[in-house]
Amino acid sequence: MNAYDIVKPALFSLPAETAHGLVHSLLGVAGETPLARALADRYVVDDDRLAVEAFDCPFDNPVGVAAGFDKNAEVVPALATLGFGSVEVGGVTARPQTGNPRPRVFRLREDRALVNRMGLNNDGAAVVGERLRRLDAPGPVGVNVAKSEHVSGADAPADYRETYEQVADGGDFFVVNVSCPNSQGFEELQNRDRMAAVLTELQDAGAAPLLVKLSPDLPEPALADAVDLVEELGLDGVVATNTSTERPESLKSPNRVETGGLSGEPVTDRATETVRYVAGRVDVPVVGVGGVATAEDAYEKIRAGASLVQLYTALVYRGPPLARDINRGLLDLLERDGFDSVEDAVGADL
Ligand SMILES: Cc1cc2nc3c(=O)[nH]c(=O)nc-3n(C[C@H](O)[C@H](O)[C@H](O)COP(=O)(O)O)c2cc1C
Questions:
Q1: How remote is the CA of residue 242 from the centroid of ligand 1, in Å?
Q2: CATH topology for 3-345?
Q3: Catalytic residue of the set 27, 176, 180, 279
Q4: What's the pLDDT band for 183 if we cut at 50, 70, 90?
Q5: Is 68 in the pocket of ligand 1 (CB under 6 A)?
Q6: H or E segment at 188?
Q7: Stretch (H or E) spanning 229
Q8: Count of CB atoms within 10 A of residue 58's CB?
Q9: Dihedrals phi, psi of 276, to nearest 5 degrees
Q10: DSSP class of 244
Q11: Strands 105-108 and 57-59, how do they pair?
Q12: Is the pLDDT reported for residue 181 higher than 90?
């Protein structure tokens, strides 16, 4: 039993967002005290075989924190001390947003999943941009750039640009979020022409490295269009995938009826299949996200073509040792299968 197993019942007795806020406050404190050193000693796995170079960024290990966990760039150093190789902050919008009314995050405990309809609450790009500029992060920091509320599809390119320009000098890579199911009009944003307009506007603004984050719910023709666009526009990478609006039959928790995006264990295979599809068709790195909770999960996405993986939901269920356990487990799996490094294993099953 680890320390998280002891505090988890107390955290889980609180509403999900309250628990998240508490964990955030603790992480904020931990990142700035001598405790940070002790945490890093405990959780950082330092091994060259884990290093990955992707879209010109050097990652010490392939396990990153997915967008949404640190929406406002407040706990990046603390997450690094927990052993994560990178953090994607955001989604960030041009101005501050309060998001949807609470409750808006739900645990599906029996399914090791979450449903959220946060609605892109964040402090706004000016504040997040300033925080990012002051950050001294050991690993690459991505910024997830999202569409502001009440902005139409036609006005989306200018809106994304406005956000990007405020965070431009604070991020190491930029992820265009066109796949948040809690953002109104998101289906339209994944239409080929709309997506192309947003991406070219950001390229024109100088956004690089530029990645696009896709939904796991895209029907194959739309996914094929998105993949073509990545090649045509020369994007630097793809993040696959965001949360899902689908509800697999297998879900047991009563909270499955809540509206929002599903994440965690039930989306694992779907996300991996999207990684495989995309990685088989593009030459740029793919970041695999969706249900990664163990070294085996991460390894499966890597073998399916992911150069890096990210996670959010498993952090809620498994707590601080997660990145360490995945990184250690990955080293064992690499050794078992005769790979010299993570990079060697990328796409082994393609
Ligand atoms: C509460 C919550 C908020 C999220 N917010 C964002 C966001 O702002 N932007 C984004 O691209 N993805 C967001 N996500 C999606 C995650 O980044 C990730 O793609 C998804 O949860 C699947 O990974 P997981 O199964 O490891 O959680 C959010 C997820 C959760 C659970």
A1: 6
A2: TIM Barrel (3.20.20)
A3: 180
A4: confident
A5: yes
A6: helix 186-189
A7: helix 220-233
A8: 13
A9: -60, -45
A10: B
A11: unpaired
A12: no
70 and 92 in contact (C-beta within 8 Å)?
Answer: no
Find the 336 Cα to ligand 1 centroid distance in Å: 32
Could you identify the residue written with the tokens 């498994």? Answer: 318
Read off the pLDDT of each residue in 314-321 and give the average, rounded to a whole number: 95
Amino acid found at 269? D
Q: Tokens 């508490």 appear where?
A: 22
Percent of the chain past pLDDT 90, that is, above it, reads: 89
Q: Report the alpha-carbon angle 101-74-134, nearest 5.
A: 140
User: In this structure, what DSSP letter does residue 326 have?
Assistant: H
Q: 96: exposed, middle or buried (C-beta count within 10 Å: 0-12, 13-18, 19+)?
A: middle
Averaged over 169-192, what is the pLDDT?
87
| Residue 267 beta carbon below 6 angstroms from any ligand 1 atom | yes
Reported as a single tens digit per residue, the pLDDT across 269-291 is: 999 999 999 999 999 999 999 99
More confident residue, 190 or 229: 229
Q: Which amino acid type is present at position 182?
A: N
Nearest CA to ligand 1 atom 10: 67
**Neighbour tally for 275: CB within 10 Å:** 30
91 pocket-lining for ligand 1 (C-beta < 6 Å): yes
Calculate Rg over the CA atoms of the chain: 19
Average pLDDT of the chain is 95
Entry pTM: 0.98
Contact of 143 with 45, CB cutoff 8 Å? no
Cα-Cα-Cα-Cα dihedral sign, residues 226, 227, 229, 230: positive
> Distance between CA 79 and CA 16 in Å, rounded?
19
Cβ count within 10 A of residue 51: 16
Other residues' Cβ atoms within 10 Å of the Cβ of residue 247: 15
Instruction: Report CA(289)–ligand 1 centroid distance (Å).
Output: 9
| 261 Cα: distance to centroid of ligand 1 (angstroms) | 8
Q: Is the CB of 62 under 6 A from ligand 1?
A: no
- Residue 201 and residue 158 in contact, taking contact as beta carbons nearer than 8 Å: yes
At 249-270, the pLDDT tens digits run 999 999 999 999 999 999 999 9
| pLDDT over 70 at 1, yes or no | no
